[in-house]
Amino acid sequence: MNNIRIYKATKEDAPFVHSCVTALADHVNQRNYLKSKIEDIENEISKDQSSCVILIAALNNEKIGFALYSTIFSTFKGKQSFFLGDLYVVPKCRQDGVGKKLFQHVVNEAKSNGCCRVDWYVTDSNAYAKIFYDRLGAKKISTKTIYSIEIQ
Fold first, then answer.
1. What gap in Å lies between CA 82 and CA 102, rounded to an integer?
2. pLDDT for 78-93, tens place per residue?
3. Cα angle, residue 54 at apex, residues 50 and 57 outer, rounded to 5°
């Protein structure tokens, strides 16, 4: 898997990204929460000032995974940090180092941008993701609870 290429997504990658998001929603039994459409992803990718960066992992021109992150500001640290919104690898390429390579790419981007950390959430039901991040040496933050308000 040394031939994995990681690049910034273009509008043409939106259908692949959406298919991965749909598969991820199915994997964590949250398909009923999925509201995005391919056009939503196309529009975000096409913005001059997008709120996120979407990376694509490809092997021999076949798309095999993606990661999405955005920049936030940590008032406690006084520096920017990245929030990893999604990291997904197609099932046939799991255990081949693709996820690790995507994750490391995000971490390296954070470092080169002077960020103090990368944060993300893992759905309680996603045991494989928890194992993956534990193996990477990530620390679980038990002092925080996630809240959300849906805006109509």
1. 14
2. 999 999 999 999 999 9
3. 160
